[in-house]
Write a structure and sequence with these properties.
Blueprint (H helix, E strand, L loop, with lengths): L14 H8 L7 E5 L7 H13 L4 E6 L7 E6 L2 H11 L3 E2 L2 E2 L1 E4 L9
Antiparallel strand pairs: 1-3, 1-6, 2-3, 4-5
């Protein structure tokens, strides 16, 4: 009696599992900016972030809290499209001798029209 060889189970790469591990944030109008230079004056840093991001759209708020969140800021733009453009343009750019890291914020923000 001849037996058929047992077929090996095939493993497929599931992109959904990879994306769940990476936690890709969906576009929002608030950006999380990290890797800021801690030696820079807070007022100068807030003003410079406002001017830098206003190139890409209307900036509603720049929030810095160095006591709690070292070298991080939240920049709220008017629309999601403006935030997406700013993120694409400013991620990995030098700012006060440090490379900016710009991501969409995990917090829910209200989109103003």
């Amino acid at each position: 009696m001849s037996r058929k060889p047992v077929a090996k189970k095939r493993r497929f790469h599931d992109d959904d599992k990879v994306n769940k591990r990476r936690k890709v944030a969906e576009p929002k109008n608030t950006l999380h900016v990290s890797n800021l230079n801690e030696k820079t004056n807070t007022k100068k840093l807030r003003y410079s972030l406002y001017m830098l991001f206003s190139i890409y759209g209307e900036v509603l708020k720049v929030q810095l809290n160095f006591r709690r969140l070292r070298s991080q800021a939240f920049v709220t733009m008017r629309t999601t499209e403006e935030a997406t453009l700013a993120k694409a343009s400013l991620d990995k750019e030098l700012f006060f001798n440090k490379e900016l890291q710009v991501e969409f914020s995990n917090n829910n923000t209200v989109q103003l029209e």
